[in-house]
Amino acid sequence: MNLAKVWGLLIGLCALLGGLGWVLGEYRLASIFVFCGFLAAVTAWWHGERVALAMVGARKAADAEAPTARAALDRLARRAGIASPRLYLINDPFPRALSAGRGVTGSTVVVSSGLVASASPAELEGVLAHEVAHVARRDVIVQTVAVLLASTLVELARLGGYLQRALVFVLGPVAAAFVHLLLSPRRELYADRFAARLCESPHGLADALLRLELAGELVGLDANPVTEPLHIVNPFPREGPGVLFDTHPRMGDRVKQLRDLDPEWREKLRAA
């Protein structure tokens, strides 16, 4: 389904450009526009991940950095039957996590320095398992493409000069509509369940989600809010442009789903 969405978007983009070219200059201009659309799609496929990572300020982790996270990521990738994603870091004291890339053929998992420092081993494993689930299910392809498309539309508003504000009000909702059309909140619920199976316990991820949600409420991430779909939870303030691109289900629903995977967790907690 995710691959079908990407192909559908590519065909739709080429068809739209081809139709515009036909109206402006019939066959010759239509051919040029379709070719340009194809080049844009290829560029997004090969370089979209780098653009998305630059938008959130991520950098590649050095070999000696975050050894616990790197070992857990490799272990979870083996369990999921995929190649281990690259590990990137964000210099942020608050816990954050996201992923971007082309799916199982090449993706990147990003965690913040705050998450590595503050999360328990079970919480860190749960977060990494969630991102590995997005890679294994190829959600990461659609998420990255949706972010690139939305950011392109929003950036086009900057070309408006005196009309920039008006263009933002027009293109912002259009970009958000594309994001919501491509991405269903259910992808996060599926990834949560997948992660719980990888970790053989749902509680590490459930605890981590609550920690990440609280961090986002205290201090929003200083990055482009268009990148919201890449994150495990929405790290941006619940006001302003960030609301338009919120594609995550309610945190209560996610935590309840995870806790319900272990119906006896309350009894186990009392016994401990």
What share of residues are in beta strands? 5-15%
* Number of distinct helices: 10
Low-pLDDT stretches are none
Question: What class would the helix/strand composition place it in?
Answer: alpha+beta
Going by CATH, the architecture would be 2-Layer Sandwich
CATH class: Alpha Beta
SSE run: HEHEEEHHHHHHHH
Strand count, sense and barrel status of the largest sheet are: 4 strands, mixed
What topology, given as strand order, has the largest sheet? Answer: 1-2-4-3
Any idea what the radius of gyration is?
20 Å
Amount of helix: 55-70%
Mean pLDDT: 84
CATH third-level topology = Zincin-like
Shape: globular
Distance between the termini: 43 Å
Tally of DSSP β-strands: 4
- The multimeric state of the shown protein is single chain
How would you name the CATH homologous superfamily?
Metalloproteases ("zincins"), catalytic domain
Topology:
Blueprint: H1 2-55, E1 59-60, H2 67-80, E2 86-90, E3 97-101, E4 107-112, H3 113-118, H4 121-136, H5 139-156, H6 164-182, H7 186-199, H8 203-218, H9 251-260, H10 265-271
Helix pairs in contact: 1-5, 2-4, 4-7, 4-8, 5-6, 8-9
